[in-house]
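Quick one, T. Sequence first:
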Amino acid sequence: MINKELQKRILSSIILMPISFFFIIQGSLAFIFFLSLIFLLTSFEWLRMTKNRDLIGIFGLFFLFLSFFSTIYLRQYIVLNFFLFLIIICIFTDIGGYIFGKI
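C-alpha cells:
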C-alpha cells in the first residue's frame, strides 16, 4: 500500500507537470507569469518554514530569486529542447533521490 505522503506527491505531480510543461512550451509572458506565481508561493512557504527570518530567511529568498531568474533567463536564451532536457533530468534526479532516500 502506498503511504499518504507518496500518494500526495504522485497526485500533485500528475496535476502540476502538464501545467508546467504547457507554460514552458508557451514561453514569453505566460511563462514569466507562471514562474512569478510559483515564486510567490515558494517564498511564502519558505518564510513560513523558517521561524528565524533574519539571515537564513534573507539568504533563502535571495536563492529563490536567483533560481527563478535563472530559469527565466535560460528559457529565453537557449533552445527549447535543451531546456526541456534540463527539466527532465531534474525531475528524474529528484525521483531517484526520493526513491533511494526511502530505501
